[in-house]
Design a protein that fits this description.
It is built from 4 helices and 6 strands. With about 160 residues, the protein is of the alpha+beta class.
Length: about 160
C-alpha cells in the first residue's frame, strides 16, 4: 500500500512542478547585482518586476512624471513581449508613486494603457530607491489559453 501512495505522491509532485519557469532580462547590470529578473514566466502567469522610467538602453531618466510613466509602460511592454503577452493580458498592477499630487496627472495614462485589460490595481505612495524616480509600476499578466480546436470528424451531410 505504501508503494501505491508513494507513487501517487511522486506523480502529484511531478504535475505540480511541470510548469514553465523562465526568466526575462532587460540587460541591466542592476538585475544581476540585486538578484532579480525583469520578468518571470511561471506557469500561466508573467510577473513583471517593479519597473521605473529609466530608459534601459541609455540608463537615463527624465524628470517629468508623465514621461517617466510612458517609459515605464514601454519597458513593461518590452518585458511582456519577450514573454509572448501584451498589456491586454495584464490582470494585476501596482502603481508606486512618490508624490500623491502626481496621481491626477498620470491616472489618465493608466486608463489609456489598460483600456482593454482593466486589471485589478493598487496605487501607493512610497519612497523609491533613487530620488530621480517618481513612479514604479509592477504588473502580472496571464498567458492566454489556446482556443480549443473543433474536430469535424465523421460524415457530415
Amino acid at each position: 500500500m505504501d508503494t501505491i501512495n508513494d507513487t501517487m505522491h511522486e506523480k502529484a509532485h511531478d504535475r505540480a512542478h511541470d510548469t514553465t519557469h523562465r526568466t526575462i532580462t532587460s540587460g541591466s547590470s542592476f538585475e544581476k547585482l540585486a538578484g532579480y529578473s525583469r520578468a518571470l514566466v511561471d506557469g500561466e502567469y508573467v510577473h513583471v518586476s517593479g519597473t521605473t522610467g529609466f530608459d534601459y538602453a541609455t540608463m537615463t531618466i527624465v524628470d517629468d512624471v508623465v514621461e517617466q510613466t510612458h517609459q515605464c509602460f514601454r519597458n513593461i511592454e518590452a518585458a511582456l513581449d519577450a514573454a509572448g503577452v501584451t498589456l491586454a493580458d495584464v490582470v494585476r498592477t501596482r502603481y508606486l508613486l512618490v508624490d500623491a499630487a502626481d496621481f491626477e496627472r498620470i491616472a489618465p495614462l493608466f486608463g489609456h494603457y489598460f483600456a482593454k485589460a482593466r486589471p485589478a490595481a493598487t496605487a501607493m505612495i512610497v519612497g523609491l530607491v533613487d530620488p530621480r524616480m517618481k513612479i514604479e509600476i509592477e504588473v502580472t499578466a496571464r498567458i492566454p489559453r489556446p482556443e480549443p480546436v473543433m474536430s469535424h470528424e465523421g460524415g457530415g451531410r
